Amino acid sequence: MSTIRLTMAQAVARFLTAQKTEIDGQVMPLFGGVWAIFGHGNVAGMGEALHGVRDRLPTFRAHNEQGMAHAAIAFAKASRRRRMMACTTSIGPGATNMVTAAAVAHVNRLPVLLLPGDVFANRRPDPVLQQIESFSDGTVSANDCFKPVSRYFDRISRPEQIIPALQRAMNVLTDPAECGPVTLALCQDTQAEAYDYPESFFSERVWMPRRTRPDEAELARAADLIRSAKKPFIVAGGGVLYSGAEKALADFAERHGLFVGETQAGKSSLPHDHQANLGAVGVTGTGAANALAEDADVVIAVGTRLQDFTTGSWALFKNPNRRIVGLNVQAFDATKHSALPLLADARVGLEELSRALGTWKAPEAWTGKGREEKARWFETAARYTDPTNAELPSDAQVIGAVQRTSQPSDVVVCAAGGLPGELHKHWKASTALGYHLEYGYSCMGYEIAGGLGVKMADPSREVIVMVGDGSYLMMNSELATSVMLGQKLTVVLLDNRGYGCINRLQRATGGVSFNNLLQHTHHVTLPDIDFAAHAASLGAQAVKVKGIGELEDALKKARGSEHSTVIVIDTDPLASTDAGGHWWDVAVPEVSSRDQVKAARKDYETALAEQRVGD
Ligand SMILES: Cc1ncc(C[n+]2csc(CCOP(=O)(O)OP(=O)(O)O)c2C)c(N)n1
Ligand SMILES: [Mg+2]
């Protein structure tokens, strides 16, 4: 066996360069790069190793570990999980800064390879700078925080351990069912230790997406159930996009006369104007999709985790006879709420299901209802997004302006605040992946860093990041990285002077406006933040606009620019789209001295009665 003597860190770097993926017949590197913030625990080991492979595996310097991991996660999502990135950090705070991002990837089932540095395996210099020192457990380090939010966690304390660990890591990162974050905590002395690695460990490997075919009996049972349906309805989740099943979904819906509601992760599975697409479903759903979801007797749930925003906290699907067919690669999801599982890749699953259904079509009366509801919704929705002269436009009116100046190939990126709900209802996505919402963890601060990852995944598309003032203040530093890397973003920053959506939620649950909008906080001086000046200081072109007309002009100008641009607009914190949507379970206090809370509790108990438990 021929071997090569490398440090463990050099072996990691070399191994990553040998991993390939095949997209549209073209073999390319699986890893689009490594994000790195060096410190003690990775600068000497991983730093030296990454420098050695920089021509084949670029290293990118970020400003915040959470932000760089967000960029990596967004890159993977925008690449349909077919490409990914790694992230390396120092030990201690550099590492734990990434834990929230690991949770983002875990919830959203997205691949990212996290390589935090760890304490010395030999323990000689203990306690080292940033070592947390457990009194009771000598094996614990700060990196144990990654365990619950990693699909696979390992700590590498001998150089040869990296051989099975990296192979296991690749299984997890590329398996559609298991997919999620992998954390390999790399002890700093081990990174620098040499070992005679077998050459074969570094042979090129081309990873192909596994397309699990349905089990025959499950397929027959699912087809029987769908054939018995009078009111079938499809829920399209992120799995449709990860599988590249858009055409299969369109064919399936057309052939069998079915309508589709899209989750946040599934939005853009069908073009907004496709006859079958009723738009968003669930708590932030369109009136059209929700009308059909409420009545549906068979819900075909494709590639969705069925989170509460999709199921209306399990009160949306009201038909007492409703059954669910769970078409999913992951049994954990396919069997939720007594669903009839159909374990398969979304694309082949839909193709085979269609074959099994033959010429079966949904009843015409039901199809007619879908068409009517869709027409009614579009008329209603336009009232919220049409141009306005209002001094303080709503989020929906800003979305209307962005939409009017956008191109079909644009990608809109968002994650938290009031915007995701408004975008889910109103954004008209024309092409697959044109809508990028991180709404599994809805992590404030994902937006700009995520936008950067989306842009790096496909630089040919214009990326428009929509972000609230709260999210922007929480994390904006990768804006400077976008400037540094020449990866252009257009950021539309909606300044409603605080946490608008949480203030609205607080009021809706009977609370007093308290500690959300800046004016309702404990303060000595009410902040008056000059976001345009802030963005400009990070190197972006920045402008503050007044109203929708100026916003549209600024958006057109930004399109012509090659530079990252931030457009700031003041918006109304109280306005949101009251049409469409569905109840969401947010627990209201059972006792309170406030009459408004008592009233909200009464409404809450009435709503709870609609919640279906366990069926
Ligand atoms: C990291 C993180 N902390 C807290 C929350 C809870 N949260 C959701 S939206 C929100 C306010 C967002 O404010 P902003 O970005 O200004 O959007 P707005 O609500 O004003 O539309 C908060 C605090 C979260 N989703 N993520
Ligand atoms: Mg805000």
From TrEMBL:
UniProt EC number: 3.7.1.22
Residue ranges constituting the Thiamine pyrophosphate enzyme N-terminal TPP-binding domain according to the UniProt record: 52-130
UniProt keyword annotations, A-Z: Hydrolase, Thiamine pyrophosphate
Highest taxon in the source lineage: Bacteria
Pfam family, one: TPP_enzyme_M
Molecular function GO terms recorded: 3D-(3,5/4)-trihydroxycyclohexane-1,2-dione hydrolase activity
Domain Thiamine pyrophosphate enzyme TPP-binding stretches: 417-568
Keyword Membrane: no
Top-level EC class: hydrolase
Stretches assigned to the Thiamine pyrophosphate enzyme central domain: 219-353
Family according to the record: Belongs to the TPP enzyme family.
Record-linked PANTHER family: 3D-(3,5_4)-TRIHYDROXYCYCLOHEXANE-1,2-DIONE HYDROLASE, THIAMINE PYROPHOSPHATE ENZYMES
Name of protein: 3D-(3,5/4)-trihydroxycyclohexane-1,2-dione acylhydrolase (Decyclizing)
Lineage: Bacteria, Pseudomonadati, Pseudomonadota, Alphaproteobacteria, Hyphomicrobiales
